[in-house]
Amino acid sequence: MKWIRQICAQVEDPAETLGAKAHGLVVLHRLELPVPAAFVVTTEACRVFLGEGSLPAGLDTELATAMSGLETATVRRFGGGRTPLAVSVRSGASVSMPGMMNTILNLGLTTGATRALAAETGDARFARDSRRRLRSGFASALADGGAADHLGEAVHPTRAGRRRRGETIPDDAFRQLELAVETVFSSWNAPRARTYRELHGIPHDLGTAVIVQAMVFGNRDDRSGSGVAFSRDPTTGKNVPFGDVLFCHQGEDVVSGRSAARPLHELRSREPAVWAALTDALARLERHHRDACYVEFTFEAGELWLLQVRPCRYGGAAGVGVATDLADEHLITRHEALRRISPHHLQHVRTPRIAASPQTDVLARGVGACPGVAAGRVATTTEAAVRMAADGPVILVRPETSPHDMRGLAAAAGIVTALGGPASHAAVVARAMNKPAVVGITDLEIDAGASVTAGGRVIGEGTPVTIDGTSGTVALGSPPTTTDTAGARLRRLLSWADEVSGDHTERDELQRLKAAHATLGHTPQR
């Protein structure tokens, strides 16, 4: 097939063609880890769609063939039958753009398929909930503005985009699939996605792949759920699995932050078999990538399935800690550890924190999601953050954030949310942008455009606050701060740098690292 690849261990196409997400699924297959059956529509098809305004010729036939293959692999029938097949349709560019494009879950749950799912499972509530999620998510994607009106000067306004405006969700599974592929392709040029690419220097002409994957239902029952996991703590670099899990929920609930996620370690007692399989997978992935890894997972009726993996390169102190620990564990050499640490890491390795002091007026406490201290005036909407940032730093304070808040997140010096955990959208984007963030302040209430209430106190928009992304503290005004001293792992890394350069004279940390890089013939990148 020209436009589609079945995702399996034998696929050789690069991430530039498959997208990074599908390329990661290929790795999971090669490691013989549990992955739902899937195929990918390539980035080449997306570029044709964006350039010509319609899906490439022949893609409809390839979609039918690929879906027939999924039916065979799952022993299910797309859109009907006694055992109906539902799929997820996800974006997947060659570079990570977390949450910036559309995802549609439970696709194929037509009226008839929903009845069949209820009969198969004996759980009409579950079947109705899954169809409700499809209709809600699909309607949101169709209304998302994404693409049809914001394709930019270089691409053709799509005929598909014009058709989608005001279109209802079809009750035909294959038409749902075609429409979903068009919608995800179009979301490549959603304003939030373009803003993200401009902030991160990502070219606008890459396009996204689309992954079509058999659904695993995290909302199936009390022994089901979804989560995200880091093989090592992204805030400290410690070798401890870290993340969020939601029982009896689908993955969108974890990432959005709208539901109160539980710490990942609660899986150990609730679903020990899932925990054992997950921690084994994380260890195997670390050995393969020789780095800390991030995975998204779902478990249905006590069985684990992996949906995404990518290696993580942490910044600041966490990055230094991971590099030195991996060297100590003999996954990488000491020279490789030094190559992985850039001067930028050293600039952020000593994390500032709000000092414990009688002068510190604590307004609220939540969960630290990205280390560091940020101070600025409270802005309660994206529009306010963009406007107020022209006159000085702002702290964006929201119930939760979504990709639609991208401009506000970019404008803010720090981020605070009432909902969500360390793997919520706000936390993930904050770490990607290296901005201090505090999430999950349970008693925080936001009156958009007016005020914030926490701990029984009300402060108006524009009030100066300081946040500590390590401790999760939000304080009024400008409290005193302190900076961490050099940790043992940084001292060990710099001793390796001195051994490489052969220079043991008294110098600052940056000079010691640069001398080692020069000896290794390495030019670090940020």
Question: Mind explaining what this structure looks like?
Answer:
Mean pLDDT is 91; it is low at 145-165. The strands form six sheets. The chain has an eight-stranded mixed sheet with strand order 14-24-23-16-17-18-19-15. A five-stranded antiparallel sheet has the order 1-2-7-5-6. The chain has 526 residues and is of the alpha+beta class. 38% of the residues lie in helices and 22% in strands. Helix 13 (316-328) packs across helix 19 (488-501).
* Shape summary: globular
H/I helix tally: 20
Task: Assign the structural class, choosing from mainly alpha, mainly beta, alpha/beta, alpha+beta, or little secondary structure.
Answer: alpha+beta
- The share of residues in helices is 25-40%
Largest sheet entry = 8 strands, mixed
> Strand fraction band?
15-25%
Report the uncertain regions: 145-165
Please outline what is shown here.
With 526 residues, the protein is an alpha+beta fold. It is globular, with a radius of gyration of 24 Å.
Write the layout of secondary structure elements.
Blueprint: E1 4-6, H1 15-18, H2 20-30, E2 38-41, H3 43-52, H4 59-74, E3 77-78, E4 84-85, E5 87-93, E6 103-107, H5 111-121, H6 124-142, H7 159-164, H8 173-186, H9 191-200, E7 208-214, E8 225-230, E9 242-247, H10 251-256, E10 262-263, H11 267-270, H12 272-289, E11 293-300, E12 303-311, H13 316-328, H14 334-340, H15 343-347, E13 352-354, E14 361-365, E15 367-370, E16 373-379, H16 382-388, E17 394-398, H17 406-411, E18 414-417, H18 425-433, E19 437-439, E20 445-447, E21 451-454, E22 457-460, E23 464-468, E24 473-476, E25 481-483, H19 488-501, H20 509-520
Parallel strand pairs: 3-4, 16-17, 17-18, 18-19
Antiparallel strand pairs: 1-2, 2-7, 5-6, 5-7, 8-9, 8-11, 9-10, 11-12, 13-25, 14-24, 15-19, 16-23, 20-21, 21-22, 23-24
